[in-house]
Write a structure and sequence with these properties.
The complex is a heterodimer of chains A (373) and B (300). Chain A is mostly helical and 373 residues long. Chain A is built from 18 helices and six strands. Chain A is globular and about 65 Å long. Chain B is α/β, with parallel strands linked by helices. Chain B contains 14 helices and six strands. Chain B is elongated. The chains are: A mainly alpha (373), B alpha/beta (300).
């Protein structure tokens, strides 16, 4: 084999990418287009690779490949965890272990929880770090067969999950959640590259960031974008662009952006009623300040002993403390979180209750839960 | 453009402008969604330095176990979203719908008319068709368009996200009636029937007589287990079960079910030129009925 070069020409690169991704040489038109874009600087190396890798042709090639279907692996994980029967005769039989959907609201300490659950999952298949934009494109056997689905996906994805999925969430005291969210953004290079200086005052008061401040937990409980209609009844990209300034025209995850930022159709009283209704319907509610209890209940659902507390990850380094916030700003944060405050108060009561009991509206007790009877 | 600029472009084309380390870095970020770890980066840069073709490095990263895992978290098919929308918007104007938001969504709420889908149930392998029936079936669909899921078997189709397979311009493969459960319920359907091989052939009838629930595969039952129990191919278990037909069904049962299935399709076409030869098996009964149906007016 001849020694290769330390640098590649644009043509070598494009040919290699086409062959590697699509198993075919670049067609003349594609080659000319990509060469022109690369040489003119219209697109950089990462942009070219990203565009080819995420192209519709790459998607179709992938869907047709054997790697896309991993049913046997999925089934093995379900059998090992007691979440499936053993043949067609098992159809319709109740699963021994229902799927958990962790409706993870940002900055409620859920990352620690998801990581700990994944570490204790054994043979179970866990689907975490999923964004809303990915949900319509995940195969149903996976979405419905995973033991744990976790992400900042809101409540609109519930119809996509296993019909008997147990929906659980954690609610945090709203002021500390807002401050944690602010600190998180300040550590995010992608955000800070566009924002020279993001003060807490800007975060709370500017329309660009306000949706992250104002009753954000209630938003995630009730905001339903109609994800099933994405790319069919509406274009997430166009919907994002239509939001107009101060929001960006484009985002790599437009549906996720819409969930986090687009205007809610509710008045405040309606939002409170809808969010409380949703909270009551969930199978398990925790609060950040009693996360160990919540974690223990999930482990019991998996038939595991809840020994030891929850290992903490993603703890806000140098997160702003409430006492450091100016009085007027604190008053604004509180005013912007009237619904979340009421939600948190109710969540504290529900957290003491534990798993929802059978026969209660909207939920049932999962197998293995005996602790609070 | 100045002479100097042309010179720089020429030099880049001759000696290359893309350091192999940068290429490996960009591949990792795009495919594996993380920075390249130093040992992997060294490995692939050295490989390129030894003359391993770029395509092989791209393929190795693209098909690695880690990339497969990532595809479950960030499915590649998500890249098809804009193309699905373009298909719809291109046929009926843009701004067809809006997400349920309080005013931040797209303006205009007219629901677009879709270009429609065609579902083509092709004959399975082992018949004497020449493939022309597929092309005839495709002709009933919209113009060449994205996406066209042609040649998919049941094991593949199950893993295609619903938003893709229900919005595809065409879904075609040896899928019988069963595959229709996975596509757009309003799809125009075409059954392609091929000349049977052998006087007692039954494979087409078996496929048409099968009534499986592919949507519950690996959730309520394990196709591999079932295929293994029946001594069938476990590599493509759903397709194997489909082609094996209902367990315990005799020739009369297969013939009856296959003929009944004909009525479930909007059109019937023959795969290859019509032949007069005849046999006695279920597939021949199907073929005779298909000849009659194909000659008649389309059922729409």
């Amino acid at each position: 084999m001849r020694p290769g070069p330390a640098r590649l020409t644009s043509r070598e690169l494009i040919d290699g990418l086409y062959q590697g991704f699509f198993g075919r040489p670049a067609d003349e038109a594609g080659l000319a287009h990509q060469l022109r874009a690369l040489e003119s600087g219209e697109v950089d190396l990462a942009g070219l690779i990203h565009a080819l890798r995420w192209s519709p042709e790459s998607a179709l090639d992938w869907l047709a490949s054997p790697a896309a279907g991993r049913g046997a692996e999925l089934w093995a994980s379900r059998v090992a965890s007691g979440g499936a029967g053993s043949g067609p005769a098992a159809a319709g039989a109740a699963s021994a272990e229902a799927q958990i959907y962790f409706l993870h609201i940002m900055k409620t300490a859920g990352t620690s929880l998801v990581n700990a659950m994944a570490a204790r999952s054994g043979p179970r298949l866990c689907l975490s770090q999923v964004f809303l934009d990915h949900v319509p494109f995940l195969p149903e056997p996976l979405l419905q067969g995973a033991a744990l689905v976790a992400g900042h996906l809101g409540a609109g994805v519930i119809p996509w999950l296993a019909p008997d999925a147990k929906v659980v969430t954690v609610i945090r005291e709203p002021v500390s959640r807002v401050l944690s969210h602010y600190s998180h953004l300040r550590r995010d290079p992608a955000v800070m590259s566009h924002t020279a200086e993001l003060s807490l005052s800007d975060f709370v008061r500017l329309p660009r960031w306000r949706p992250l401040v104002e009753n954000f937990q209630a938003r995630h409980l009730v905001h339903d974008l109609g994800v099933a209609g994405a790319w069919v009844d509406f274009s997430p990209e166009e919907a994002l662009a239509a939001m107009g300034p101060p929001f960006p025209d484009v985002d790599a995850l437009p549906l996720q952006f819409l969930l986090d930022y687009s205007a809610l159709p509710h008045s405040e009283p309606d939002l409170l009623a809808a969010a409380l209704d949703r909270l009551e319907s969930l199978d398990l509610v925790g609060v950040t300040d009693r996360l160990d209890d919540f974690y223990a209940r999930l482990l019991i659902h998996w038939g595991q002993s809840p020994d030891g507390g929850l290992p903490r990850d993603n703890v806000g380094v140098a997160a702003l403390r409430a006492e450091e916030v100016a009085e007027d700003l604190m008053a604004e944060i509180l005013a912007a979180n009237a619904v979340d405050t009421a939600l948190y108060q109710r969540a504290q009561e529900l957290a003491r209750r534990g798993w929802k009991r059978p026969g209660a509206p909207g939920g049932s007790l999962p197998g293995g839960n005996q602790e609070e009877r | 453009m100045s002479t100097g600029a042309w010179g720089r472009i020429l030099a880049r084309r001759l000696v290359g402008r893309w350091p192999t380390g940068d290429v490996v870095d960009a591949l990792f970020r795009s495919v594996l969604l993380r920075p390249a770890d130093p040992p992997s980066r060294r490995f692939y840069v050295r490989a390129l330095g030894r003359g391993v073709p770029v395509a092989e490095v791209v393929r190795a990263i693209h098909t690695s176990a880690e990339a497969v895992d990532n595809s479950w978290r960030a499915p590649l098919a998500a890249g098809a979203g804009p193309a699905l929308w373009a298909r719809r918007a291109g046929t009926a104007g843009r701004g067809a719908g809006a997400p349920r938001t309080g005013g931040g969504g797209a303006q205009g709420t007219r629901r677009a008319e879709d270009a429609g889908q065609v579902y083509v149930a092709c004959p399975p392998a082992g018949t004497a068709g020449d493939g022309s029936g597929l092309w005839a079936g495709l002709a009933f669909g919209p113009a060449p368009d994205f996406p066209r899921l042609v040649g998919y078997d049941l094991d593949q189709l199950v893993w295609v996200p619903a938003v893709v397979r229900q919005r595809a311009a065409v879904v075609a493969g040896p899928l019988g009636v069963t595959g229709r459960a996975l596509v757009d319920p309003s799809a125009r359907s075409v059954l392609v029937v091929a000349r049977p091989v052998g006087p007692h052939a039954s494979i087409q009838a078996r496929v048409l007589a099968s009534r499986m629930d592919p949507g519950r595969a690996w959730l309520d039952y394990c196709p591999e287990t079932e295929a293994s129990r029946r001594g069938l191919d476990v590599e493509r278990p759903l397709q194997a079960l489909l082609e094996a037909g209902p367990e315990g069904a005799g020739p009369e049962d297969l013939e009856r079910e296959a003929l009944a299935a004909l009525a479930l399709f909007d059109r019937v076409v023959l795969d290859g030129p019509e032949v007069a030869e005849d046999g006695t098996g279920p597939d021949w009964a199907l073929y005779r009925a298909a000849r009659t149906a194909a000659a008649g007016a389309p059922r729409t």
